[in-house]
Amino acid sequence: HYIFSHTVKFCDLDHNQHMNNTNYATLVMNASTNKTPTHFEINFLNECIESNEIKVYHQIVNTTEYVYGVVDDKMVFTSLIN
């Protein structure tokens, strides 16, 4: 289900003007209910640029949490957390 949106700001960008990978991890952990994970994976599917609005979603299946981000109906990252 939908958790929150994040608008990519200048301070989120790397030297290539794309959102820095560490900022995706911050989004994932802010959406997660597991604040002490033993396993964390993130897959980068599409680049985000300044002013993109990333919609962050969360789902729990058994003991695994899934967090993913969408920009304009395009999946930009997926992650799993145990």
- Radius of gyration (CA) equals 12 Å
Q: Low-confidence spans: pLDDT under 50, at least 5 residues?
A: none
Largest sheet: 5 strands, antiparallel
Following the backbone from N to C, one meets helices and strands in this order, namely EHEEEE
Principal-axis shape: globular
**Approximately how much beta-strand content do the residues carry?**
35-45%
Helix content: 10-25%
Provide a brief overview of the structure:
By secondary structure, this protein is mainly beta. It has one helix at 21-31; strands at 2-7, 40-44, 53-61, 64-71, 74-81.
Q: How would you portray this structure in words?
A:
The protein has 82 residues and is mainly beta. The chain has 1 helix and 5 strands; from the N terminus they run βαββββ. A 5-stranded antiparallel beta sheet has the order 1-3-4-5-2, with helices on one face. The longest helix has 11 residues, at 21-31. The mean pLDDT is 96.
